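## Example record

The block below lists the input lines for one assembly entry, exactly as stored, with component labels intact.
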Amino acid sequence: MQTKRTVFPNKALPYFLLLPQLAVTGIFFLWPAWQAIWFSFLREDAFGFKSTFVWLENYARLFNSASYINSISITFTFAFAVAFLSMAVALLFAVNVNSMIRSRNAYTTLLVWPYAVAPAVAGILWWFLFNPSIGILPYLLSMAEIRWNHRTSQADAMTLVVIAASWKQISYNFLFFLAGLQAIPNSLIEAAAIDGAGPFKRFRTIVFPLLSPTTFFLLVVNVVYAMFDTFGIIHATTEGGPAGGTNIMVYKVYADGVIGLNLGSSSAQSVVLMCVVIFLTVIQFRYIERRVQY
Amino acid sequence: MATVELKDVKKTYAGGVEAVKGVSIDIPDGQMCVLVGPSGCGKSTLLRMVAGLETITAGDVLIDNNVVNRLGPAERDIAMVFQNYALYPHMKVYDNMAYGLRNRGMPRPEIDQRVREAAATLGLAELLERKPRELSGGQRQRVAMGRAIVRSPKAFLFDEPLSNLDAKLRGQMRIEIKAIQRRFGVTSIYVTHDQVEAMTLADILVVMNAGLAEQIGTPLSIYERPATTFVAGFIGSPSMNLMKAVAQGAKGLQLADGGSVVKPRDTELPQGGREVLLGVRPEHFTLVKDGKNADLELSVTAVETLGADTLAHGRPSGSNGSGGEIIARLPGASRIDEGDVLPLAIDPGLAHLFDAASGQRI
Ligand SMILES: Nc1ncnc2c1ncn2[C@@H]1O[C@H](COP(=O)(O)OP(=O)(O)OP(=O)(O)O)[C@@H](O)[C@H]1O
Ligand SMILES: [Mg+2]
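Predicted structure tokens for the full assembly:
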């Protein structure tokens, strides 16, 4: 493919044109990242008057603290629960919508709507629905003799944030699964039907394996989403509680740094998260760009 | 192995498209039936109704004298080879071939034996551990055949299986398909729009047009006595010349475009005044030395030299050109130039006459 190449006569001009983007990247990404790294090596005294350079002590304390280890394990539970729930539901929708002929577009449009809702708004929505005193869902659950209170039960709280976080993501996953399903040639399904495979067997042995590149891509995307983009949802619903039961790593950075004003530890946590992001990005590029081979 | 019978089968798609408007075909056990026709005439639709991939709007499909209209594709016990092969891309060749057998709960050793036998027959023994994407087009085609053979189905269905191959490979695979079909004696339906495939593969040839079977018969009988102008034009390459003419009783046929009167030999002439189409295949013109024996004089407008043959394009001398072009296939040795006027004789008994209005053979 040929692209048109522009040759700048003036060597400085291209840099000048790049300047706004570079400035944004520098001020809003590189500078804070650098600050986080720098602060993670410092300890401030209780009054914020002076800071001392403490090498890796913040990190050592972090990984020795039960609440941080707890936060890591909660983050994993949360991320994989969100990825699993949102992908499973999205796949179910996609398979059903894909088998429709006339109403396919209408359903697709409807199913994409939740994606347009801001995370905090989605959080509030579910907060209302699940509110132990005024929410409709606890009321319905109480009829089935199930007592719901996400303010006291960690399991209830986790369920709430998982549902709220997954709900939005279903739309996104749905679109990708639908596209993945439509990319599978119909003749493959027909060949399998002639080969004596019923609908479930066809799904298990043909459709699902052929969707694996999409599934893997979505798994990474959803884990990243659950780990980093769900701050608003947690903030609007459980605020990390009860007793740290939904205090995922991103929320803990905020809770420790902004509320607890422990800048050293909070910065060290940010740096840990940065490493996780870099790791996930590498996975994404290494494997997804090359596509999962079947 | 089984007989396949179609009784006045019709298909109307949900949108109201009448893809097949009533086709009846009888295929005896072990024979190969080829459906040929222009794009969109309903060949694939008909095949897919036999396969059970498309519901049947009206009529019956019988396999081994049992109506199978309501059976799913698996229960009909047929195998199908698709145009794009439809190999399972994530499975090895071996598993592609074994898939249908496993689904039917066949014991492992028997599956293994069948797959290896079929692979040996098709020259795939070395390739069993490969994935489809690691195979050439011809090899994929063979795997698709293998997947059909291992099942020993009642019938093979082919939907343009060779159209993705290059010309040379297509010729080779055509012969192989015929050999395999003969060896296993499996009743087959083969869809194509390639005339050569149609003529060489068919025991029974069905020429379809606009959802109907225009003519059913052996390839030769269709070539020799096309029932309609459509069939006449479709089978044979280059296609049959069709000239408008008006019957002049015993004198012969007056070409409509102002050309001469033609009187084909050994041909029963229709009664005077009737408007007809005179059909002559390009290969049934002979160049004569003596203008007296000529039925027609051709003023040549273009010459295609193919080596073995020479195709002379032109129009009857004296015509006003409204009758269209005529092509004559002459021996390669004849030296012909544009502007020549060729005295041509129509081979005795090889002229075809059709009613101008209905297109039916007279
Ligand atoms: N699923 C469908 N829904 C509606 N109309 C269809 C459908 N499939 C085919 N048709 C129509 O039915 C007619 C016959 O189609 P079919 O595929 O049988 O043609 P064909 O003879 O196989 O053509 P080709 O040589 O191009 O494969 C066409 O007019 C086509 O547009
Ligand atoms: Mg077709």
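The longest strand of chain B covers residues 18-27. The domain at 4-234 of chain B is CATH 3.40.50.300 (Rossmann fold).
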